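Subject: ferroxidase structure
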Amino acid sequence: MVTSVLNQFPNTIKVQHKFLSTIPNETEVVDFVTYEKVCEETLESLADYFEEIVENAHHLNSADVTYSSGVLTINFGKPYGTYVINRQTPNRQIWLSSPTSGPKRYDYNIEQNSWIYKHNGKSLHQLLQDEVPLIVKNELDFSCCSHSLV
């Protein structure tokens, strides 16, 4: 039986009674070491840039930026809301919760050197570039952040 199945699927190997394809997926998951490095660089650079943004947005007196343990929280206060950007190590993703556009999950694309939302092909930095200037009422340039595709 196993031989006949393997003959039908030549790019498959049997591992403990499970079949695994040897053909890579369309969206290969980045290796753990690269993920950790790129994720940390991305979150730290975003934290630094958001600190600068909030400092220069005088109408956002109660705004606050915190970055700890892989979670970046940008609270713009009422009526703007809070952005949460965090590492999701088991999935090797960055997750974003936006008060404007809702939750999104970003995968790191090695070829583009950027975090991409697979449902619309937009980068994390592009979403921030589209939404945050409306809150801070100022022009911004997220291309200065690490792994930006703006």
